Amino acid sequence: MTRVAVIRDPSVPAGSGGFAAIQTVAPSLRVELTPVGVRDGAEIDHAIAAFARSSNGGLIVVGPGSSVAAHRDLIITPPFVRTALRFNPARRKAERAGIDPIR
Fold first, then answer.
1. Under a CB-based contact definition with an 8 Å cutoff, are residues 54 and 3 in contact?
2. Which among 4, 2, 81 is positioned nearest to 47, based on CA atoms?
3. Domain assignment of residue 34, yes or no
4. What's the pLDDT tens digit per position in 35-73?
5. For residues 78 and 101, is the Cβ–Cβ distance under 8 A?
6. Buried-most residue among 28, 32, 62, 64 (CB within 10 A)?
């Protein structure tokens, strides 16, 4: 893994502190960091989709769970699944299977 997106709420001190700690060790691990704010779903969707276009990446969520809980499904569902569900006529079937598509 050479790239990591760090999902955090920049307004929550614990999220900023967690990101700072990761920033400190990233160079020694030769990992490139990309901060992703959780202010709204569109911001998360855009950032994760852009990040996912390249290989060798991973996600880390920092800060209290309460700051990202509202966007949990958006964070854990891969972008290609969300895109497919937007344009797939079988969307209802996916919803019944427990996949929560983007609203």
1. yes
2. 4
3. yes
4. 888 778 888 888 888 888 888 888 888 877 767 777 777
5. no
6. 62
